[in-house]
Amino acid sequence: MRVMAQVAMVMNLDKCIGCHTCSVTCKQTWTNRSGTEYVWFNNVETRPGRGYPRGYEDQEKWRGGWELRHGRLVPRTGGRARRLARLFANPELPALDDYYQPWTYDYDELLSAPLGDDVPTARPRSLTDGRPTAVTWGPNWDDDLGGGPEHLAGDPVLRAMNDTVRLEYERAFMFHLPRICEHCLNPSCVAVCPSGALYKRIEDGIVLVDQDRCRGWRMCVSGCPYKKVYFNHRTGKAEKCTFCYPRVEAGEPTVCSETCVGRLRYLGVMLYDADRVGEAAAVPGEKDLYPAQLGCFLDPDDPEIARAAEESGIPHDWITAARRSPVRALISTYRLALPLHPEYRTLPMVWYVPPLSPVVDALSGSGHDGEDPANLFAAIDALRIPVEYLAGLFTAGDPAPVEAALCRLAAMRSHMRRVNLGEPQDPRIAASVGLDERSMHAMYRLLALAKYEERYVVPTTYAAGSPEPQPVSGCSLDAEGGPGMLPDEEAFHAPPSALREPAAGRANLLTWNGRDTAGLFPPRRRGTSR
Amino acid sequence: MLTVWRANLIGSSAKGNEFFLRHLLGAGDNATAEEAPPAARPRDVRWRPEAPRGKLDLLLALDFRMTSTTLFADLVLPAATWYEKHDLSSTDMHPYVHAFSPAIDPPWQARTDFETFHALAEKFSELAKGRLDTAYDLVATALQHDTPGETAQPGGRVPDCRAPDTPARPGRNLPVLTLVERDYTAVADRLAALGPLCEEAGMTVKGVTVRPGPEVRWLAERCGTDAAGRPRLDTDVKLCEAILALSGTTNGRLAAEGFDALARRCGPATGLRELGTEVAGRRVVFSDTQERPVQVGSSFEWSGKEAHDRRYAPFTVNTEHRKPWHTLTGRQHFYLDHDWMAELGEQLPVYRPPLSSPGGDADGRSVTVRYLTPHSKWSIHSEYQENLLMQTLARGGPVIWMSVEDAAAIGAADNDWIEAVNPNGVVVARAVVSHRMPPGTVFMYHVQERLVNVPKSHATGRRGGVHNALTRLLVKPTHLIGGYGQLSFAPNYYGPTGNQRDAVTTIRRRPQNVEY
Amino acid sequence: MNHPLDTALWGVLPYLVLTLFLAGSAWRYRYDRFGFTTRSSQLHESRLLSVGGPLFHYGLLFVIAGHLTGLLIPESWTEALRVSEHTYHLTSLLVGGAAGLATAAGLALLLHRRLSTPSVRRATLRTDLLLHPLLSAVLLAGLTATATGAAAHPYDYRRGVSVWFRSLFALDPDVPAMTHAPFVYRLHALLAMALFTLWPFSRLVHAFAAPLGYAVRPYIIYRSRART
């Protein structure tokens, strides 16, 4: 057993209103620069919907994640030999059209149009080739079910369902699915990178791309089944969600979490057994992957585990944090949270609490109390959002864990309703879902009240005694084309133009303007007049 | 003259936009509606054969975005944004007041609103000497809610002053008429100072009057005084200070005085005096709001209570302290016995079918549907639709949401260009086809403007209009009732509303080659 | 006695080029490791690339293999292995010619793609404007040289150019070996030297990043946050 720790996330889909604040704040922080115009580390999808990039969940086509070949895990894009053989043109790489062609507008037209008898307008212009363009796809095209049944038929999860879902007005259903990088325990993006630029961090499990080691082979983009590694077409490097590691290292929540309007995100430490990961990812049955991954997680309250963790070098306050972890509560204790597409075999670490939805009218229409536990549990598989759809997302098609989670949520509602109305408690409600009153209240507190300090339990990564040599020049993220390194604010809106000056302290010959010499040579030594 | 101060009247709020363009501004428009035929014209209001065009002499806009309003404005003054000035921020639905603080000075020629209006006032006052000087104005104000005007027409009988034996009495069957002296040369000075009326006449809100004598004296010390001895309000910070000093929500002394008055009216058992005592010691000054958002306190000016452990909910003062409702009976009631209500048969809430139902469509190429302009999920009115991030997360330009059936009826696929017309105007947009739309109704979400990605209309050859190009304002006669209990005018409370219900439009799929 | 120009070209210039190549590459690796990337434009256009990319690169691999064989392995060694000159020549002509043609075809396709796809064109670097013509010229010269090898009495470069090449490393350049080589071979060599000079300062450095280690590397990599 090798105990390791990861800062993981759970999102409560019951609360997502699809406001996209998370998308916008993440983009403003990390990807509002040249080369990443089309990149949204955090995106929010309406489901049913085709997602971003469109149809990414169709692994028959995109071949992301892992598969079992003769009982052994192999990346679905093939083994090492095939990868090297296909180095020169990755056949599974999505095109920009699959994400969308980023655009801007001729805003200047509004200021500079000549006097006329009609109102001017700013027409769209492509950010990739600078020509006037029509907008035909975006990162959130089917928001709120825009596009209709014909378009939604392209939803891979919908297509895989056995029951036909009728997309009609009277039966319309939707929910929102915010997605970031899963920071998997068994990341296929790391596995397929030929140059070894991608890596998983020992201390917190965050998966990152080393910008100095990335050689632009762009295999990671197709390797990821969630399509959360992106190619920066300006710098020629891969970029991905960094889990806001500079913030997490300081004990702060990620930007998407901090700004979430619905307060639906939870951050906390999970202890896992690194030795069990390979085995768990390779269990033959897809439906067994969820329980297998649960089996990798370790109980920080167990003194043996705690001791092993300390021996592994996990700091004491991380173990404390693991005990108070809201993510552990939702994943392991209450079994409310489920992994996204466990069948990809990457063992994702951003899990989701499935959304409750209204019981179909048939039940309450006939005069039954829809919130009465007996009726509610019986109606769980007749909820507006088909359980089969949720199972297709979260449990490789197994409805049982989804139903169990939904029943617990429904029981919590029934229980708390009695509390709010001043009615006598009925302990059978909690018992019927394997919980007790105390845990009902604790669950309610965590999910409904969701206090800030209880949502985000993130220990710092401070380690006393290890000298931190200062980087050669300022912040390690200060690369030309790096986040926050916009030479001027208009760059986001402007059509592509001449390549810009490098940031001081680092050279990038490919975009060198031929004049600036900063960073090209070793720094002059000062004060060595002797 | 119309000053639009960081609002977007022409591109957003003007319902019946094309009529605004025609009658208010005198600009070109796409309305094709005809005047009402003689049989449908009002009898009691003078009818002019030629409705005047371009009634407005001057449209002045203060803004930092190029909107339809600033494009149509005669003058545009560059405005500072939120992080370039001192100001106060609050809403009535959450319990905080907070300051805007400048991070930078307004760049280039932009000025804060405060500076702009004061500069205009200075110049205006200077020019008024020898031209306008002092004038007298007869001002008519409506019979207002929470004033004695509410009892002007007992029993809901309206004594028609045009009848021979019914005298016209201001405040009874005429508006309240007041003679106002306007010294136009003093506008600038008076804008920059707190006048004597708030002390002399007191400040009255919801029928309760408080006297801010101590506050005015405090402001005189805090802000200095002008030549007339009045507290100066010559900077934006001082004005913010004055607002905080004169509001019961941030000045507990005034709140307590108001609650006291209410307690005298409603009785000691209501606990209103104690409510005042709780907040009497609270005092929020501007520097408090600059440090952090500050919670406001309960005040007689609002119907809900504030406390450190509860959030604002309206009418909790009424329900928990038994303050009577501001109605004829002091209770909530449905039945309204006003003459005009009876004339329309609306003494009780009643269902009214739509004015015109969408006809059966299908000439195969167009469909006539009910046209709604709901608030979008990202704003009520305030989303800046030119923002690239927001457009990227949406469809990149104005859209109309249609049902699958209606789209099929006109042969339109998702994202096809369509045109929606009715006698009020023309809209060019792309279709969003969705099964979550019921057949027979389309949505064009609020305020998509026409300055981003709106082509020329195939029907008219001119630029398509804003979402309000297809609407027109209707005035409901019962909204003109005044002087009768709760049916008395108060801004944003009761009065003629911008009512654009029952709009209907005909939509067809247009040629997909568009011109800008 | 060698003409001074010949000495300069074949006795001095190669060393300058080699120095620039090595030092430049070292400098680049030290100061601009961020720039070591393929700068792939597959995101913008992948249909033409899926043919042109592999065609060019695989062709090039064979071309390089052929060059290494031809330049570094002395004739005496192949003869010792009982490979006759004729066999060698035929092999190098056919295989080399095919490889060269494939490379040229691939490059032509890639260039066409770069010029005709607006988004790819926009992504073109300034050094590319130097690099691509130079690379094309080197290829064309090399193909021409190979084509001359189909003549009745072809020039045996293993007795001329290769000798010169190996002599460079003995620090005793055999200048006459090059001066007596046909023009097209000399042109090819000069253009190649120009290419090697440009190499460290252009996107060609991505060739150094060939991920050979991937064949034996474990799939999952863990790294510590602390700087090692």
TrEMBL record, chain C:
Instruction: Quote a single Gene Ontology cellular component term.
Output: nitrate reductase complex
Q: What does this protein do?
A: Does not seem to have nitrate reductase activity.
Where, in this chain's numbering, is heme b bound?
H57, H67, H188, H206
Q: Where in the cell is it found?
A: Cell membrane
Residue span, NarG-like domain: 6-225
Q: What is this protein called?
A: Nitrate reductase-like protein NarX
- Taxonomic lineage of the native organism: Bacteria, Bacillati, Actinomycetota, Actinomycetes, Kitasatosporales
Keyword terms, alphabetized: Cell membrane, Electron transport, Heme, Iron, Membrane, Metal-binding, Nitrate assimilation, Oxidoreductase, Transmembrane, Transmembrane helix, Transport
What family, per the record? Answer: In the C-terminal section; belongs to the nitrate reductase gamma subunit family. In the central section; belongs to the NarJ/NarW family.
Looking up InterPro entries in the UniProt record yields: Heme-iron_electron_transfer (IPR051936), NarG-like_domain (IPR023234), NarG-like_sf (IPR036197), Nitrate_red_gam (IPR003816)
> Which SUPFAM superfamilies does the entry mention?
Respiratory nitrate reductase 1 gamma chain
Q: Write down the required cofactor(s).
A: Mo-bis(molybdopterin guanine dinucleotide); heme b
Protein topology in the membrane: Multi-pass membrane protein
Q: Which organism encodes this protein?
A: Streptomyces caatingaensis
Transmembrane annotation, as ranges: 7-27, 48-68, 88-110, 130-152
User: What Pfam families does the record point to?
Assistant: Nitrate_red_gam (PF02665)
What GO molecular functions are on record for this protein?
A: electron transfer activity; heme binding; metal ion binding; nitrate reductase activity
GO biological processes = anaerobic electron transport chain; nitrate assimilation
